[in-house]
Recover the amino acids of this structure.
C-alpha cells in the first residue's frame, strides 16, 4: 500500500523516535508499505516519521544508483531500532534531497564513516560499519529518526536562500509527483 509522505513543517518530522517492541504487529506489512511508498516516489531511503510513525525504522534501497556504483546493486536494507554508535572519518560535502522536502537539493557535510547497531527485517541484530555514500544515506535517514531534516544542516546562507521555498512547503503550496501529507495549517 502506498502511503502519503509527510512534508517539511509537519510536527511528526520533529519527533525523536522510539525503539519498537519485538512483537510489533504487522511489521512485515509496514516494511513492504515503506518500500512501496519509497519506490513510488523514486526515493532511495525512507524513515518511519515520513509516513507518520514515531517508530525507529528506516529502509534504504540504493539499487537505482547501481549504474554509478556497482556496490549499490542489491543494497536493499531495513534498519530497525537503529542506533549510530560512532561517526568517524573525513567530512565530505555532497548534494542531498529528501522526499519530505520536495524540489530542494543542497550540499550537506557529513563524516564518511559510521558504525551502526540495528535489527534487520528478521529482527536479527547487526553491528556494522558503513562508508562513503552508504554511510551518508544511512545518516540522512537516521537523522529523521532523531527529528532532524537535512535542511537543518545546511549553512545559514543556503537556508536563507531556500527560505521562501521552505515556507511554501510548510503552507502546503508545493507540487510533487507522489502522494503527500502537508503540515496542519494554522
Ligand atoms: Ni529525507
Amino acid at each position: 500500500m502506498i502511503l502519503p509522505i509527510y512534508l517539511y513543517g509537519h510536527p511528526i518530522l520533529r519527533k525523536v523516535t522510539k525503539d519498537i517492541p519485538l512483537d510489533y504487529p504487522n511489521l512485515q506489512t509496514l516494511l513492504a508499505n515503506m518500500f512501496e511508498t519509497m519506490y513510488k516516489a523514486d526515493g532511495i531511503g525512507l524513515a518511519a516519521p515520513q509516513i507518520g510513525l514515531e517508530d525507529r525504522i528506516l529502509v534504504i534501497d540504493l539499487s537505482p544508483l547501481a549504474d554509478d556504483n556497482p556496490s549499490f546493486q542489491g543494497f536493499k536494507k531495513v534498519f530497525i531500532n537503529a542506533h549510530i554508535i560512532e561517526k568517524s572519518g573525513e567530512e565530505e560535502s555532497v548534494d542531498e534531497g529528501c522526499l519530505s522536502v520536495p524540489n530542494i537539493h543542497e550540499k550537506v557535510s557529513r563524516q564518511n564513516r559510521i558504525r551502526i547497531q540495528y535489527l534487520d527485517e528478521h529482527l536479527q541484530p547487526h553491528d556494522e560499519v558503513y562508508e562513503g555514500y552508504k554511510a551518508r544515506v544511512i545518516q540522512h535517514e537516521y537523522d529523521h529518526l532523531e527529528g532532524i531534516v537535512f535542511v537543518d544542516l545546511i549553512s545559514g546562507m543556503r537556508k536563507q536562500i531556500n527560505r521562501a521555498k521552505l515556507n511554501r512547503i510548510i503552507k502546503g503550496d508545493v507540487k510533487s509527483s507522489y502522494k503527500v501529507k502537508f503540515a496542519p495549517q494554522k
User: Anything to note?
Assistant: The chain has four helices and seven strands. The domain at 5-181 is CATH 3.90.45.10 (Peptide Deformylase). Strands lie at 5-6, 45-47, 57-61, 76-98, 101-119, 125-131, 180-181. The chain has a mean pLDDT of 97.
